[in-house]
Every structure is written in C-alpha cells, then in structure tokens.
Fold this protein.
Amino acid sequence: MRVRFWGTRGSIPVALDAAGLHAKLVEALLKASERPLRSAAEARQFIERELDFSISHTFGGASPCIEVERPGAAPLILDLGSGVRGLGARDMARTDRPRTYNVIMSHMHWDHIMGFPFFAPAYVEGNHIRIFGCHAEIEHALRRQQAAPSFPVPFDRLAARIEFIGLEPGRRYDIDGIAVTGMLQAHSGESYAYRLEHGGKALIYATDSEHKLEDPRESEAFAAFFRNADMVIFDAMYSLAEAVSIREDWGHSSNVVGVELCQLAGAKHLVLFHHEPAYDDAAITRIWRDAVRLEEITRGERPPLRVSAAYDGLEMDV
Amino acid sequence: MPFLAHPRRLFTMSRRPNIMGATEQHARARLFARAQAHPLTTAPDLGMNITDRRTGNAVVLEVTGRVDNDSAEAFRLLLVPFLRHCTADENRIVLDFSGVDYISSVGLRVLMLAAKQAKTQGGTVVVAGLHSVVKEIFEISRFNLVFQCFDSARDALAAAAPPTLAAREGA
C-alpha cells in the first residue's frame, strides 16, 4: 500500500503566509551565504541536505485527507477534508475515463468533510463514489453542507453515482481487497479509528481521538487494535500538558501518548497527524523531534519505533 | 535535628511486565483500599516507593522508582491524604523526584490532577530533583511549563518559605 497525505492539518485549513515565507527565505539565504551555489542542482542539494525541514518545506495546511493506493485497485480515501480537492484535481487532469473511489470516514466534523463539495470527480457522470464508515450520520452531514444557503450546488446535483455503506465497529469488512475494521474513539460526536490490512501489512488511521489516561482498559484496547501495525497515523494535536489540562475533553491527543501506545502495541512506525492550526512549521518540527527523542529514551529492550510527522504531499509505502 | 527526620515508608509496589487485566485490577482495587485504610501497609513491590518528610508547613514526598501505567493509580491514591490538607497556609507539597527513573503519561496526568486540586484549595504542588530521562520527559510533555521545577527539594523549600527551610535544618 502506498500512503499519500493530501491534508494533515486539524480543525481548519491554514496557509503559510507572507511573513512566514519571508522568515524562511531570510534563514535560507543566511545559510546559503556561507558557500557558493553555482547551479540549480547545487542549490537543490543544499536545500535538501543542509536546511532544516521547517525552513526548506512546509507541513502544509489542508485538512485531513489521505489516499491509500494499490496498483490495479480503486483509490481508497480516508476522510474528505480540504486535501481531497487536490486529489480530485490530479485525477481530472489524468484521464476522462470513469473512475471508482472508495472513501472511509472517521467522523463528520467539518474539517473532515469540507473538501467534498470541491472534489471535482463527484461532478462527473460515470464516476462511482462509495462512502463507508461506522458513523451514523455520514449521508446527512454531506448533504447538509451542500444545502442552501451554505453552497450553490445541492448534493443531488452531483452527477457521479454516490453510495453510502454503513459499517459496524469491531466487524471486519473487505473493501476492494483491503480488510477494514473500525473502532469507536473518544471524540465529541463520535469518531472511529480504522485498521486496514492488505498483503500482510497493517495500517492504522486513528485521528480525532482523546485517550483517557485514567482507564488502563482503554489503553489496552487501543494497544490491541494497533497491535504490530506497520504504520499508525495518530492524532498528535496537542502537547500532553495541554491535552490533560486546558484542552481536556477537546477530543484530541498528543505525541507522548502516540509514542506510548505504539510502544505498548509493538507498532513499527508512528506518523504524527492532525497538526494544530496555530502551530507553524518550527513548532510542528519540535513536536516531531520531541517524539523521536521520547522514543529513544524510553525504548528499553524494544525494537526501535520509527516516528514521522505527516505533511501535505508526503508519500510512504506500507 | 537530623536532616529531613522521621521518614515514613508509605507504600511499595512491585512492577508487573504487562498491563493488567480485569482480575488484576480487582486485586489492585482491594490492595489500594487496604492501603488507604492502613497507610503504613507494605504491598507487593511494584517498583515505586514514597516517603513523606514533614518540615514546617510543607511536606516533602520522596518518590523513587517508576511512576508508570502500573504504579500511577497507587501514586494517585497515596497523594490523596496530603492533597486534602494542602492549602494556602500549610502542607505545601514538594514532590522530590530525584529517585524517579521514569514517568509515563498516566503518571503525569496524576500530577496534573494533584496540582489542580491543590490550586482550588489555595495550595501548591511543586516538583524537585528532576534528572536525566524524567527531566526530558517533563520538557517533551511541556509539564515543565506547568509545574514549578526546582533542582532540589532544598531549593523548593527555600523558594517557598524561608522559615520552613530553617525548621528543616533544625536552626
């Protein structure tokens, strides 16, 4: 499975603004002034090798959307945040032939559905969009956001064939060759994590989830769900101090709990996701470095846990 | 008067390799109930000890071992009687972590709850003696921004109230 991140920001889309870009340029030029760069190739090499990610790149600001790609299979999309607009634009540019999309919804908060009205393949007759999920109000929420006066095109005017297929948490389903199991998470209005298994590999999508630390059974249940996963995409929106104090009951988690649950589960790769919109690239980089360091100092006799921070455009194989 | 006289060992618990199942939880609930009723009871060793040393209007709780998913509930219960009397005027709590090797998110949450309760009563909980791994965990979790952290219990007491330090040193 190839995992492609189209949107990684939580709550609301954000963009790198002029001041942020200016600050990056100043830092990059200062570093570059230490040596001559005689060609575009040397400049690219300098950017990749010598600049910190937070200077040379940006984590991006589209809200949650992930594509799971397999050769010969329909794309599987996890959530319809603003990132799905880019996915649709890519496919519209590629071919006119009818396409099928399988979509799995974690929950129906706005940041996870707001991209659908801008998903161009939904407007193309002949396309088939199958929307799966454990949440009871998927169809209602998607229809409502396109109802007047919020949007000019009502849901019923979408030309693609759109199906809604409910899933039960805890039951294993086959969705176009991928085994999918859902699990209820603590989040306002309910959200669901999913375990996707294919070809002996397991991918966990567990965003918008608060882990209530007072109940060991809760941790045990999630560790079992994450057991031996090859990749865990995890809500790491806040610091632990925030998550258990001023933002308690806001429905999100931290990099610290992500590392601990993955260690408990024997997972191989933790991917920090659903970044706080108030954080700039430097702040998200710090959260990632902190998680890497926490894993190092608490690893003990366990095999290493790889830790990454997702960014818009990141692609990784599972 | 000896330095930090009359320590009391309150609780000792053994560490278990796996997170507990329901049966173990029930056993631990009984264990904690017994410990609450008889604070000097020594339970099977979970790898965490707490001793309290009263000095002036403060109490120094020396914690040793690991405050992890197994021992955090015991840690929480052991703080209860001290928190009950932690007010603006007396029983400021200094948690001496110089003997703590590790603290998990569950243990940190216990600290947060303790600080919240103390604050509502006008009292204070501070942390002292963080070192190596535990110090880094505080920084990574941003608990260093929430708690006043002192290099040592002595520094914590000195910052809190000079008369307390004087009493502690038997001056």
